[in-house]
User: Fold these one by one.
Assistant:
Number 1:
Amino acid sequence: MNVTSSGPTLPSARGRISAALIEYLRHTGPLPDSEEISAAAPLGDDLQLALYLCYELHYRGFSDVDADREWDPELLKVRAALEQPFLQTLRDTATVHRHADEALDELLVEPVDGSGVSHFLRDEGELWQVREYAAQRSLYHLKEADPHAWVLPRLWGRAKAGMAAVEFDEFGAGRADRVHARLFADLMADLGLNTAYGHYLDATGVEALATVNLMSLFGLHRVLRGALVGHFATVEITSSPGSRRLAQAMRRTGAGPAAEHFYDEHVEADAVHEQVVRRDVVAGLLEEEPHLDGDVAFGADATTYLEDRLAERLLGAWRAEESSLRVPVRPAFRPRTGSPASVGTGGEAP
């Protein structure tokens, strides 16, 4: 048995499908059957957690799971069965635009009276809400840019060069201390959160899980390479203005210098990345493969759809003075001066 120790332990189940999957990963039970999967809500907790577990085997995995499970043929069949309703639901409900330019141009228009999560946190958010936001986002940001790296072998020419250039920046441009996942861990330490990879999986709501699953779904399928480029373009186009508001929120709530720095870094970097992605990655891809135009648009639309669902969940809870998490995080713990928390050990106790 080849067990890896780099990932978190398996989480608690959220239904019969995820429970069966967890038992299978532990060698203590069979996989869920197709009827159970077909009956599950595509955007519900049970299916989304099960899908997340399947996808995470392609990243760092779980410390209590055999690393060879990554390519288990029976498990891959179950993953495909989980993916199908998720993808179909997005195609049916999220699709708005037929062409990439239409979808991406619309993202460039900022509403005069914005009411999203970054607006709320900037204008009226409290520190506990900032901490919840960071915990929800940690499932992605502690592996930031990793899902998008899957597309690199599927591109060539101008698109590949542009994508590699942006990813190089995301991975710190050769400096470990500037890797964006590292910077987010520093942000979490400033907020007194546990910086261990995957620590907040049990606490994270299904809406945030779905946003991470979307990237993995697109990244792990060559046929969906256009959709992943659309997702990436959407993230880069919307990141700079949103990060500016979040940097202001960090300052207003006293989140800490590393928390401020994470979003300040994204304001500058993503303003440049947006141009590279539109000019080189998207345009380069469609120059080589014009038939992927609709897929790029779909990737952008699906991203916006799931982000809107997450925003609705967060703002609905916060405006009711309730936690947005399944398990609220503990009160902030501040490391002593001169003893910064490191990745995997800092902040809040497990």
Number 2:
Amino acid sequence: MGPSTPRRMRTLGTALAAALALTALGAPTARADAPAVPDFADGFGLRIAQPTEVHSGTDFTLTVTTPQVSGPHKIRVFLPSGYAANPGKRWPVAYFLHGGGGTVNDAAAAPALRSDKMITVVPDGGRKGWYANWKMQDTVLKAANWETFHLEQVVPFIDANLRTVPDRAHRAVTGLSMGGSGALHYAQARPDLFGHVAALSGGLDFGMAEIRATVVATELNLPGAWCAVSSASGCPDYGPYVDSDAIFGSPYPVFGADRLWRAYDPAAPANLSRLADTSITLYTGDGDVVDAQTARAARTVKSRLDQLDIPSRLIDYGNGDSLAPTCNGGHNYGCWAPAFADYVPRLEAAFAATSATR
């Protein structure tokens, strides 16, 4: 091949070494034969801030900015394996809201969320965003309108850029821990958007002192079990200290000071009544100190829904024996992953049944 062969070999070797180094560092990669991920355009107040992180042709992460929430934020997307091969097909969508101290990558700990029958979208919810528009917008975290970001920007942004079925019958919101309360709240705040909701080990009852104390602990960056196990990778902290009244104002029920807590409360009968035409599923164990409280909250929500004659499904798996060998009934992905493995096929069937009647 002549004198150039050694140089070519050296060039190829250098390129291979570089590729292996990137892989070793955990850089996102995609197979050469994998379909290209969809192009996204700015819109609805969101701007694409960085190149898309491509994990595979059906798994990628966007980075966006918005005036509603300070700083860049991730949106991870799982597409069905047949998305690229069926360009005329539209798909239902499930939104997954991670827990306190978590990230968009937590969804990878629940394999059932990678469905071939629907799109899964995982927006950043902050370490302690609580899926709310904060009362205080001048903390060290600055703008913190998480509810506006998700409901008025992310949802229409996804519908504009992906082939979704953009109606409530084909859209679900799910979440765990902090994201469980967020999912139930979002379904109540926008019943026009979501026809299905699932909350796993959620902090659902803001009337409980224990739930309010947990929110305050996240504001003050106090370490605790709730955070340590609600992220798939653990949680070293809740982020910078902010005022204890930053999100919902004073938690104390004195002279109406806790009005924002009561207005948000996913367990409040007035809010639950907004779910009359929504498919509702709740999961909880009671095998540790945290899920002992989420179990109380879930039972309260179930009882109030029954009183309102609103159908719902509560799976209270106690110590976990009835759910999966990996589950000890605690506040962890050993229970949440099999809970999603139970829920996702039911959601897929509901989506399919709705499409079949049209």
